[in-house]
Fold these 4 entries.
Entry 1:
Amino acid sequence: AVAWSRPRQMSFSTVTLFYQLIFGTATAVLLFRFSLNSPMEITAVVLLRKILCEVTLAGIAEIVTLLVVRRASGLGLERARMLSLQLSLNAIVSLAVSGAATLFLIGSLTNVRERLTIVEDQIHTVVVDARATAPDRPLPSHIRVAGSAVQLPLIVVPTRDIAAGAKQLGCTRTDRGDQGGPDDRNTFLYWLRVCVIADRFGDKTVLVSPRALVVESFGTIFTGLLPLMAYLVLAELVLFGFRRALGRSMKLWDEAVQGFAARQRFPRGEAPFIESNAVLGMLRQATDDYLDADEERERLARTVDELRTAIDLRLLSGLRIEDAALRFVELTPGAGVCQRVVPFNPADRSALLPLRGTNDIMAELRLAGADSQHWFLLLAHDYDVEAEEWRFGCLVRLRASQAMQTKMLHNARLIELGGMASALSHELRQPLFTISLAAENGATMLQRDPPAVGRAREKFARILEQVARASAIIERTSAYAREERGDREQTDLVQAIHDAARFMRPVLQNRGIELIITGGAGVEPMMLPRIGIEQIIVNALQNAADAIEQARTEQITAGTIGIEITRSAKHVAVAIRDDGSGLVDDLAYSPFDAFSTSKPSGKGTGLGLFICRQIVDEIGGTINLANNSDAVGATLTLTFPLSHPWRLT
């Protein structure tokens, strides 16, 4: 019962109390009534004694388990750094109530034992006084001792027939020192079954049974214990209700946090506690305000993006008009800020330079180079004299005179954006799958007892890593759409390959494919787009795995992928070799074209190798895919020249 209760955050003492009230009561009734033939009063007191002792020990055990925990690593115990408010309150209240009731019971039972010891002398005194007062009269059949309302049965028997006389009174033993040791006299069963030898005269013996007095004493104890037991049960019920109310509050808090993380409005619900409800109300209002602002930001971003697509709108900040160029920070929704230096046509210099120092400007100009025939409108506001720049502005392409040219450019832009949307959908599928799997595993680990916090933290770190990966993919795709070079960082090429292989290894193992990585010694760090390199390796491994699966359907034994990293004087080469089905004839000369694929419908988009080529072209390398000349399968070869400017020195 205790093992079942702890994962549910239930108190030891609560479970112990109700367990004993149900199963302990049934066991006690069966044992004492049918086996020991004990009166109901004594059965009830013994049962309550057991329940109180169990609940008290459970409370002590719970306090110990709250204060002392097992060390996370190695053997031994250590002090707990945090306590459960609910379990601590349960343990303290239960221990206080059950402890008080137990002390009362112990004192009462001690008084009963002492009183029964004294009653022996009182019985002897009563019998002797009765014989002395009326020696010729027979003794009464019942006598009463001081402080008791019950009458005790009395019988006079020949001394040689003491055992038979005791049996008539329902006794199995007699007491005046001839039977029973001190240990027996401390048990309630002894006093239920004993007959006291009150007096002896001639060959006669007077026997008295104190059973009725024992039953009366235990009945008094039971009556005194009932209010304490009722208070204990009531306290446990109140604590149980408090636990449920606290659980409802924590559920509302969890929904609030999860809703905020998922950027969702959580439903309105009243918490059981005033303080918690007030804080939840503030959090709900803050979440609503945040989501309203976020929705407004998204609407503005979509509007700006549509304007950028339709009229080539560029939002500016920190604009300066220099002698031959415009210097500004371009604000791009979804991509952040970027410093720009845009040369303008020298013929417009005389029109732009006099605008310096003017608070609001509006001017038409042409850019230098290929766009010298296109006119742009420059708007700027709020000139900062100290910084010598305008805080806000925009640059808009004016309509060209030829309507056909405008339409052609617009259609080309739409086609390009459509291609980028498909590429982005393909590339984001893998990191989103990893995020979903890591989130599910992390939530499962937090539900364990005890929660696997360390492993859950690793899963959530993996989620952050994949979010950064997805963001980098989006930024790279946006950079391609703007015909810009992707950001590079100091990258250990060998480590990036191993990281991508580690990501794909579970998929390969599930398919029964062996991955072998060799070489890499002496390869120095380079300035490369790490996410792009990993994406190339992941796509290559995925294609190799698909080729191996295809070969197996054609009854060809396959199941090995090898990655070989070599360094020469001029470049670093990475060869990814498989023993799959190889390239089909239709794709042998165009494997890197967009939407070119040999996979069945719904299994591939034909964009994987296309994107890989774009990444390699951007970093100045080469990529080649060809069938193996000496065996089945194909090999994808990547080369990175060491003489390229992005190599670290």
Entry 2:
Amino acid sequence: MSTPYGSWPSPFSAADVSASAPRIDGARFVGDEIWWGESVPSEGGRVTVRSSSGAEVLPAPWSARSRVHEYGGGAWTADAEGTLYFVDGASQRVHRMPRGGAPEPLTAPGPQYGGLSLQQGRLFAVREDLRPERHLRAIVEIPLDGAAAEDDGAVRVFIQGSAFFAHPALSPDGTRLAFVEWSGRRMPWEQANLRFVHTADDDTITGVNTHAALQPEWVSDTELLYLDDPDGRWNLHRATLEDLTLEAWPEHVSPADADTGGSLWVLGQRWYGILADGRIVAVRTNGSDEIVLIDPSTGDSQALDAPITAEASVCDVQGSRVLISGSGADVERGLWSLDADSGEVTAIRGGERVDARWVPIARPVTFDGPHGEVHAFDYPPTNPDPVAPAGELPPYIVMVHGGPTAHVSGAASAAYAYWTSRGIGVLDVNYGGSTGYGRAYRERLDGQWGVVDVDDVIAAAQGLADAGLADPARIAIRGGSAGGWTVLSALVRGGAFAAGISRYGVADLRMLASDTHDFEKHYMEGLVGPLPEAEDLYIQRSPLTHADRIDVPVLLEQGSDDSVVPPSQSQVIRDALAARGIPHEYLEFEGEGHGFRRAETIIASLEAELAFLGRTFGFTPAE
């Protein structure tokens, strides 16, 4: 007996998705143990720190979460003796917690911190103080004796201003601090410079203008490595202080037609690590991720046999071992220890192999679009038991990632298996503007947000239907944040999608420009144009302006505490749809910000989306 697509019985519940593969937030070698940060959806999205010994290092209700640049990152670190340093998610104060002891504050109330790093027994951080009378960002050193717990003046400031900072790196002799700096008028993947400050003289700032510098790491007192993309791909570069003073062209270490680097949305992200003998373990991305071992003396590289193909981050190194978090084509998200000498790969947390009978292996696909090739990953309906009626084509969801300067790679996903095991295909699109394919592909979106991204997702959907893989009358589009903008913009365009799911999506550009936070305040100048000169374009591009063109059902999901894309953005679309009688639903989740972290929210939103698509596409979910 046949079973229609969408009605297949599935072992994956929304609760299973919520409790599936852990979201890893950094990892460290701590003595003989390995520690890692992990989000706990069942505890309101609290970020704890766990140990390979089986202990929970950071107990409830504490949560290690930074809000610097709103997206945070680098919210904890630890020393070899097991002292934990973390940003308290509630107060944003940095705390110190000795092994077996209780947390004690190291910084005063007011500023917020992120990008914590212990170097030579000194604690460095990125500080953001958005109080109206200050409104400054800085790279600082936090005293470990608690002197700054009540006196903010005890925090040593190396550089501060209205610019943005990341990746502080102390030279081996302790005389120089390298860091990355970018103007608030540009995003870090557009223009970010490598800078140095003399630690004995805070006023002496040197450096060189780079393209989109990332992650400086010292290899000696006078030589360092860093990432940059002067040739269109983020690759490793080597430079001496003399080179940089003379502004000589830095030396490529191991050039490749792939990216070692990415969009700097969160602090603490690392794309390479230097082993004890000087060899380098790095992530290379060209659609999917690859882990490579580089000999810096020759530039030779070899791929390592690691299961990680997506979301890879090099968290820490110790001798010949490296900790890498991420996910893979046939393994769940997790954390691995990789030994570059023996080749041994050990899963520390997560990383279980998936059952290919239920979880599809992503298929990289490319479609022809009006602006060039469009890259995507296809996850077809996958279930070992049911058979669809003869001649029926499956419904599909076209997924649109946020950013828009971001990237998806083909990886095993319980969240996607929730759909595919029920007979609903998933197409994950890296539209023009995405990272992972070089600067030229990334810059395709410059001045064209709302045009290129929409053209590309429509081309992908049509290409899928033309290939006979999807029912052209039952293709939905789903995305969050900037992806929600593309969802609404594509529905305004009309014709390609029969339903839309917008999660905290942008509806009105002028409203976003006036409401959004500092980090993205000028982002749209590159994506659309400067205000007020481009105001007409902001009006013309905004989905709200043309909401009367949306003629298919829409599900809107929103966090009540979202400061990046405030609830007003979803509410104005809701009201416009209601005024015209277009079928729609609006779900606002109390206490959620930009992105859903709580188990109850993840469950409720998935179940609502499945019910919404069932009503819209005419299938009855098995449960």
Entry 3:
Amino acid sequence: MENRREWAVSGMDCAGCAAKITRAVQRLPGITDPQVTVMSQKLTLTTDGTTPEAQIEDEVRKLGFGITAPKAHGHNHGPQDGPWHSTAKGRLVIATGLLLALAWAIRLTTFGVIGHWAFIAACLIGVTPVARRAFQMASMGQPFTIEGLMTIAAAGALMIGAAEEAALVVFLFAVGEVLEGVASNKARDSIRALSDLVPKTALLEQDGKTREVPAASLAPGRIVLVRPGDRIPADGRIIDGISGIDESPVTGESIPVTRGPDEDVFAGSINTEAALRITVTTAAADNTISRIIRLVEEAEESRAPTERFIDRFSRWYMPVVVTLAALTIVIPPLFFGQLWDVWIYRGLALLLIGCPCALVISVPAAIASALSAGARRGLLMKGGAVIEAAAKIRHVAIDKTGTLTHGRPQVTDIIPVTGSDDTMLVTMAAIEGASSHPLARAIVQRAGDVALPPTSDARAIAGKGVQAVIDGQTLTVASPRHAADAGILSGDLLDRARQLEEQGKTVAVLFGERVLGMVALRDEPRADAAQAMQQLRDLGVAPIILTGDNPRTAAAIAESLGADHRAQMLPQDKQDTIRDLSADGGVMMIGDGINDAPALKQADVGVAMGSGTDVALETADAAILRDRVTDVAAMIRLSRATMGNIRQNIGLALGLKGVFLVTSVLGITGLWIAILADTGATVLVTLNAMRLLRHDPTKVTFKR
């Protein structure tokens, strides 16, 4: 029986580390689909039990990495590597540095021969752990690794008498690896910080008393007390109290919002004003913060097309450079009578340039930083493929109800044809009672708490309305268009419906064999909707509103916002429109994640609006947690900044490699410069990617 297993792995600095582990474990019998994520420091794989778990762990440890099984409860955020000087790589830096200093001291105080042997000893002691890892990886079918190249270069330098430079190269290599680790840990800190948002303890109410319990132990249905100034320990619903809630840790929304009874709150939010009693609705492992962390971590597995290309490129890049190094060593002495020592030295320098670490990490480092920066501001994207697609967007299609508008329409006009206002409204509420559509909820809410007549055979008419049987009569609540097509709505009533629609209102008609009445509702656009449309246009992106509303209502909303529109659209119509728009560039669809599912899937990037709901986090390619329409433009800006950062990283990595490859062949630069070209480029690329952690895509620079 196959099982999916997970481990926490420490000591990984770049995508090259992940590749080494992946190749090592996938050679083991019964192991399939191994996946290693650097930022979250996880190894997951499927095993049929043929290979014992202890053997899997041993294979990883042989490569020089730490590995432990994650905790049984709660969310695993990867192992803590500790301060740099407490790690194996940190200790190697200290040891090689001391040995190098000692060798220089011996050279200065003794004869040259003794100093030469001191540098040989420093080199051999420093390179031994590196050589051991190189041998282990070679035995696992991975000969082309930086450890292997480093070992060959150090041995070759000793053979040609460059002991001092060999020892210096070993030291610089160790320093570079530590710097890579420090840079990677900085990038991980933002993900780790998310887990720290949820308090470790909670005040649980039980038998009329409160007691402190671990927040991870809270189960749905439990009641907790949250005092002013405390963080909310779990996703829940307020049952008593009204207070301002600072949701910025979760959604990035800086202004506290007032929440009261029957309203939902998120784990990690801060209660700012009054004590609240909250019913827990979600287990700790599935609260909003945990889902966000899980989404960011899993997004690493969704690689961008650019990343996949770089991965393929790096597989032949290193063998090509190794071959070039070998030719550099052999051809000049054999065919042109050049000195062997000179060209062996230059060939060894080329070997050190042959590791593609900086190139391999250039994309995933930027993607990880962007995902983390977005998550802190309520912008969630499921991986590099989504970021790359979002950067190319040329059209944004936006659903109206609940997305562009608040999704809380209010009844503005009640027009009964027979009977009273209350009778007609109660009848409509009974028919709409089972629907979750915002218009249906508005009608039910307006009807109040009165007893509703029983219904039977209730069913939805996709994109048109709802139908049910009351007292043996089949009644329908639908749009004026559907009522008119059915031959029910005409004359003065049809004219009145059109007048209401021209005012930007949505009209619902109640009819059986004839019209019984009409209700008009209006759902106001969000306060930032017009600004969002302007920001999209400034980005060169064309916004278009897709709605099931009538043309007059849609036109009134679209005109006020400065956007194009399509009206009276069924789910299939929205999907077809997305397909047509795709012919003129990438399309992003913004919807609620349920009714717009076909269109969300058809679009290049489907984005769900929603405050941390399961739908918002799981249905689409991306999610906007703050319910701000301007965050659509922010998501595109973040994606474009990320792709710009990736291009910088690739240029930096290839540029440095190219320059030092040429200078090494010409003899201008030597071994220690070559190792700086490798590890230095990796550190520079990582630090450049980390700039995205400070990037705020919600800030707009207006052109004069």
Entry 4:
Amino acid sequence: MELQVPYTPKHLSYQRILSREVQIGNVPVGGTNPIRIQSMTTTDTMDTMATVEQSIRMVEAGCEYVRITAPSKNEANNLAEIKKELRARGYDVPLVADIHFTPNAAEVAARIVEKVRVNPGNYADKKKFKEIIYTDESYQEEIDRIYKRFSPLVKICKEEGTAMRIGTNHGSLSDRIMSRYGDTPKGMVESAMEFVRICEDHGFHNLVISMKASNPQVMVQAYRLLMEEMIQRGEIYPMHLGVTEAGEGEDGRIKSALGISTLLLDGIGDTVRVSLTEEPEHEMPVAQFLIDHVVKQANQMRSTLAEEPSSDRIELPFDPYQFHRRDTAEILNIGHGQVPRVVADITKLDAKPASLREIGYTYVEALDKYNFSDIAADFAYLGAQVPPYELPGGLKPVYDHATWLMLSDRTANFPAFDTVEDYLNADEVSEVANFVRVTSAEMASVTTQPDRWEKVVFVLMSSHPVPTYDWRSMLYALAGAGIQQPTLISMSLAGFDYYDDSALPEFVRIEEEAKIQLALSSNGSTLLVDGLIDGIWLEEADDCRLRTAFGMLQLARLRITKTEYISCPSCGRTLFDLQETTAMIRKQTEHLKGVKIGIMGCIVNGPGEMADADYGYVGVGPDKIALYRGQEVVVKAVPTAEAVGRLIDLIREDDMWVEPEVASTL
């Protein structure tokens, strides 16, 4: 099978795309260098010692580039003191100045640090969130103005040997870009490329590019578009990967894995930052885990179908730049517009009603009934075990075929087959739904008999530690044969025990549960982000794996089961305690299923970074919060002590509020 994929030379096996090598201090990025890891300080840049101490903790946790905010010339000048103190303590880590609105601060910082980061939507461009019509002439006039404003920084970087990251963020695009491209991945790419072309016009190529968004779908689409354009131009700059404002805890880790791992699997990425609403030193081990999980493991494997010689040349069976769910037949309640389903393998749980708590059903013995959560599994795979108790009404049972044949009711229970051959040779199958496990080695038996699968849901199996290439190849084979049966991916953790972080300081080591979540999310990333599957079959299901599955579906925008928080990771610009505030808002709003709330530390990361949110809570000054509905500010300066209550009032005004006790009964 030969695929035509315009943004990567390999799609069914791992091959990192070779980019230009860029020197950043003594740590080069791109080319054949390792994928680098970075993070950003959260201290006040004017507090030299606090910033130095935090930078050291980050370096000891694996940080290879330390980014520090420089919102004005004062902070930019103080970067020299921070750098001096770090060098005096023996830390030669390259420093990166984070610039948004202030060209003069960038020009100061570029003479001090090893790299500056500019956001095209903010730097020397106009962003007032107004609908403005630009003619071709006025559009070009703005580009000419940007050229004059941006060129001094480019010249300084070239003279000083300072690298530059051109970092576009979804939601902080300028009015001019929005007027022509809208709030789209294409607009993100063009926003960056305008600045790239100015750099190239000055003969400056020491560039790194990023396309960040809090929505993994948008983020992935933008990076792919950018890579396609760079391949066509014949100049591939290193790419910095990250899902911006990913949030805290398990949601932040799952969302980061969805976006970052999808691109790593495509061979895209030279440096990674995981943006968590936590202390920055906790970001590096997560980034390293994702890199190791994809790159180290994928280098050791090749998909069976990808290696088979074939004369077939097919186009990619989905649009990588615009999200659409794969169109499939509907079997039972799986596929064809249905939300993705979760099948939980509970064969290793105790044969007691209480054990179903692990998959979302809590048995109340006094009432002899079940309460179920918003993340309750849709199906339970019981293997050969018929439970001696009645299952909850909303939980559909799946049994091994031999066991299913012995059941008196074979219409409300469904059989599972270990192999394609088992299904084809069976004397009796379900007239409603059959779950058939299939490996890449068996796929030829499927594609050469396209009319044999009318009531089949395929469960894609792979024994590889990173099964994604196998899953991709099987899905593309089904598409090539015109087979539109629903598909599930069987998510296990084969080969999972390879990751060892014992060399890291104990306080930043990843907990075992978080490793499980990262591995599962990484494996399922691209299939979910690209809308290619109809559900997840969870091997050895338990509460952790169940939360992970539903978290993946929520954060890939496929199945909404809870409130979503888009929170920035904090930096020196932050005007309140982000971790404490996020926890407080979560405590009072986490029952609002489907509502998205942005929590931003300052106006720089306000309307732009929370572009995907329904409501926003943004620091605008000392003890002052602005509240947003979408990207529109509705309350400009609320005292911090009143802000959470006013946010809830705003949600009430829109009839989006549900009392917690009511939500628990829905």
